[in-house]
Amino acid sequence: MSCFPFSLRFRSGRTALFLPACLVLCGVLVSGQTRVMKQLEEKRKVALEEIEWTAQLLKDTRSTAQNSLDRLQLLSEQIAARQEIIGLLNQEIALMDKEIAEMNGELGKLEDGLSEIRNSYARSLQNMRARHSIQYKWFFVLSAENFTQSFRRMRYLREYSGWQKRQVAMIIGKQTELGAKQLEREQVRTEKMALLDIRGKESGQLLAEEAEQKQEVLLLNRRQKELQAELSQKRTEAEALDRQIENLIGLEVDRAARAGAKTDAPLADRVESGTEAGEEEAVAIPKTESGSRSSKTEVKLSPDFASNRGRLPYPLTGKYKIVTRFGEHQHSGLPYVRTYSTGIDIRATAGAEAQAVFNGKVTAVFTAEAGFTQGVIVRHGKYLTVYANLSEVYVHSGDKVSTRQKLGKIFTDSSRETRLHFEIRKEKEKLNPRHWLR
Predict the structure, then answer these.
(1) Are the beta carbons of 360 and 275 closer than 8 angstroms?
(2) Which among 298, 436, 316 is positioned nearest to 380, based on CA atoms?
(3) Distance (Å, rounded) from C-alpha 433 to C-alpha 282?
(4) Which of 103, 174, 242, 315 would disulfide-bridge 185, Cβ 3.0–4.6 Å?
(5) What is the band of 379 on the pLDDT scale with cuts at 50, 70, 90?
(6) Residue range 99-124, pLDDT digits in tens
(7) Is 431 helix (H, G, I), strand (E, B) or coil?
(8) For position 126, what pLDDT does the model report?
(9) How far apart are alpha carbons 401 and 365 in whole angstroms?
(10) How far apart are CA 415 and CA 144, in angstroms?
């Protein structure tokens, strides 16, 4: 009898130590999951912004044969972004399922611990039920063989009473903790149901966009001859612009070589970049093929153009989206369509302006022979950048320009398309601008 309560206290104390340790470990795991959930939410937010921007471009682009390929590409990118969102939602839901399962495990441990404490307390009450009277307690104390034993029995009764009070407090505490954990689980379940609802809506949007894409492909296939004729005309215009740029760059390279021969140093190496040696300038690194200047992380540019591969800012203001890639490509949805570009074409909002991607010197301002729009060529040491399809130019040949300086206003055509053609070359060698802007 004298040992029973204290053995119970020892067992319940061990449980009280074990459960918090488990909960601390679970808390660390949940904290890690919460961090991953926030990262997934941020990615989903970026993908949603991408979809909204693409939807705006689709809305602003009239459905004509001239830009049907752009519409089809925009739809394809919108579908890809929608699929990414659904994939991110699936990951978030899976994490929530894992979190709910872990909470169920925690709740099971809490319920087991609470049950053990309750059972211990119930057994102690049953054990003392017939002995709770004042007379019994006095008899228990006075029936001791000596004074020392009487004192020990009094202390035992006092500690036993304190143990029972602590058991009551532990039961109340565990019940409170259990209720809070159950509420937390219900909140996670509610969030999961909200995500499932969002996923259902996104899946519906995806089906609608895929149907629209199929319809666009069907219409283009029906207008194959008209489309091929327009593509042929576009290629002719692009080739004319390329020849014009080649000639201008050839003249610039020859002029630089002659000037370099007179001074025993290539002029290209002596062209001022607008930055003193060792000086660096903050610019933003775009993460994807679309976005805006304000959403990018500021970094430092090296004063040497060649050292800034993958670090240069985009050559225009506001939101942007690459719609034509560098080089030759087979269209995924139209087997009879192949596209070729010596640079990249970037869609923007009406009123957007071209801006220099790096410090340099304007070597040419020209009017396109086909299309009547204007263009600017800027030299950066051995490298040159080309900004074409401008309706207005703000600089003149010979002007020094700095990073992000406005060069001109981008042309908006009758179909409400605002598109900048951008190239990077190392002397006469054509380079993929995407590798430098990333």
Answers:
(1) no
(2) 436
(3) 20
(4) 103
(5) very high
(6) 888 888 888 887 887 788 778 777 76
(7) strand
(8) 66
(9) 13
(10) 106
